[in-house]
Amino acid sequence: MVVLVQYLTIISRLILPSWAALLLQRPLVPSPNEQSISPQSSAPLPLVVWHGLGDNYKADGLRSVGEIAEAANPGTYTYFIRLDDDPSSDRTATFLGNVTEQVSKVCSDLAAHPTLSKAPAINALGFSQGGQFLRAYVERCNRPPVHTLVTFGSQHNGISEFQDCADNDWVCRSWDGYLKRNTWTHFVQSRLVPAQYYRDPEDLEGYLENSNFLADINNERADRTNATYKENLRSLKKFVMYMFSEDVTVVPKESAWFAEYNKTSEEITWLKERRIYKEDWLGLKWLDEKKRLVFKIAEGKHMQLSEELLSDTFKRYFGTTASSDEKGK
């Protein structure tokens, strides 16, 4: 465990969210988040946010996101998912932990939340790995149900490479080698978060046999498909997926759109060309045919978000219940 913490500490220096610095350029005002809401039908649905790797639920950048949501749709109640009330421990949980257990905890937390549990539905916003974790929430429990799911730079089809180390960082390189040699061990799959959404198209056998998380939520195991996952995902009124145009942190960046990248041939197989879509393992084809599946590009590097982009997204997809069904078509 100690060696994994050392490795992930090194990696975290390379991938701390750049969006936080951008958002913090705006003045902070007292946050309206996590107050009670009235059950009026005209009010915006509550917004649930799951942050990414190396972040924590009390980060100033996330609080700014809540303020932008409030400004875009006044009256928005925003809840930031946390795996521990201590911000430092919550950050550690983005690196270390069993993702299946983490999603289960979030399912229990939201179902028991005094405000969210009383809402007719919620909207969900996932940053980076938080996006596929929120999708797992929809598939596995979805109580309270998600109305619209928006993900930014998420790894819906996994990652085929771990974050690169600097050329002169030999400690990082040593542990990177260890990780690559032991990806499919039970020890790594039950403890190291990024490994649980690792997917190498050139080693699908190892992935399907050993993946603790992604192979399951993507319904890729022919002998263990889950009809509930498909049914729950089809309940979304909108599933919006943003891919960052210059993303070099997530490999492949096209994973944000469920695409597959072959490292040898450098060929990209887009979602609509894959069996997961054609045979509709998850309900993505059904959502697409209903015009509920939206593919968007965010200009810039991984998690390089502007206030303008977030505000536009919130207004377009997270308005009142009545209007949000029509927006973004």
Describe this structure in words.
38% of the residues lie in helices and 12% in strands. It contains 15 helices and eight strands. The strands form two sheets. A six-stranded parallel sheet has the order 2-1-3-4-5-8, with helices on both faces. A two-stranded antiparallel ribbon has the order 6-7. Strand 6 and strand 7 form a beta hairpin. Helix 6 packs across helix 11. It is globular.
Strands of the largest sheet, in order across it?
A: 2-1-3-4-5-8
Uncertain runs with pLDDT below 50, 5 residues or more? Answer: 7-16, 18-40
Terminal CA distance: 47 Å
Give the tally of β-strands: 8
What is the general shape?
globular
Proportion of residues in β-strands: 5-15%
> What's the gyration radius in Å?
19 Å
**What oligomeric state is this?**
single chain
Number of helices: 15
Mean pLDDT across every amino acid position? 86
Structural class based on helices, strands and sheet pairing: alpha/beta
Proportion in helices: 25-40%
